Amino acid sequence: MALLGENGAGKSTLLKIMSGDQSADDGEMLLNGAPVHFGSPYAAISAGISVIYQERQLMSQMSVMENLFPGALPKNKLGLFNKHKLYTDALEIINKFGLPIDPAEKAGRLNVAHQQMIEIMKAYRRGADIIAFDEPTAPLTDAEITILFDIIRELRADGKVVIYVSHRLSEIFQVTDDIVVMKDGKLVATLKTNETDEGELIKAMVGRDIGDTYAGLNRNTQYGDVLLDVKNLRTPYVHDVSFQARRGEVIGLAGLVGAGRTEVARALFGADPVTDGEITFDGKVVKFKTPRDAINAGIALCPEDRKEQGLILGRTIKDNVVMPVVDKIANYKFMNNRRVNELADTAVEKYSIKTPSIDKIVGELSGGNQQKVILGRWTSEEIDTKLLILDEPTKGIDVGTKAEIYQMVCDFARQGIAVIFISSELTEVINVADRIIVMHNGHVTGQIDRADATEENVLAMAMLD
Predict the structure, then answer these.
(1) pLDDT at site 336
(2) Among candidate residues 290, 277, 287, 302, the one with its CA nearest the CA of residue 417
(3) How many CB atoms lie under 10 A from the CB of residue 278?
(4) Structural domain of residue 161, as residue ranges?
């Protein structure tokens, strides 16, 4: 069963109630016909319910095998921890998923995609009767998605209940039988997958027909001079990367997972050291030692992992919006609260952030609204952003909000801002970017204008050595 809805529709909240992570205010939940109420996730797991959250729940300093068997470490006949059996049992699961992961490796050292697969393998290992997947494929490669779908079909064949949350509508039609649509915390539709189509689903989710998402974009057609000129860039992670970006131009970075797109973004933002090559920005050769240097020059980054690297989840919207400009809006050692509120209110209004207040804790917002908070930060009146780097800005975001973000990208370009747009969804890159830089294995393999780009020729360049 697919669970669909815009960001903020209540999907993740419903899963948290189902898994004992949050309590319901009213109503009841039946399991095998009997009313149940779980006071903790452990109680739900014991009852046969396992939820794989969009936010990873890993012990990063512990091994992969320890993460796969929390609370269920194997023991020998004397009741002592059996490390050898833990390793072999974990390896058996990893091999079933066809992944090149060492069971003894620390989970925190793996890439985001493999960390997500650990979460999926952990739920599979528990043998739960009901497994819920919340945006499971967002960080995965096509090969890993194929493995996941095979596992889901196997679970269904074994009589398991699978609840699948995804904003990638094509996936819904591949793996589900029924679709439940939510909006503003309420049930709005229940549909049979084989009796509906994408258009009907989108209308049910957003309450309107959004038409052709890309055809309606109001794009910039007038580019300025070259703002960014990268020549033979080399870092510990990429090599021989060269490209240019003009003011008002949207540059797409395309490539398979591991191509080095994020690493280029981090180097431009001063987060990773540049070991060779030259970066010319706004007419000057620059060597950023820290992100603060890049921010001061007019470069902003919305990182791939917004929860870990982009936001302080325990702080409010206004705290997160004003974070880069605290020194500008402080009176001596005291914050100018009036200005803080003005900037936060402007961001909420400008980007239609769904929140009752600017004092709302960011960690309690939906993924799409969290992304908007980051955009509000980098486009405030106190920051002169000249280059905006968006790394997977639509990951885990519903189709309605995606359409909003596409237009935001075009609006930034129309303001004269150069935008670097990184996405694992090839269709997005081809339709949003004006020019596409293709990478493979840490270096650039080609570039192509949007008018000439197809999925076939971009993917061909993405697989070149």
Answers:
(1) 85
(2) 302
(3) 14
(4) 2-206
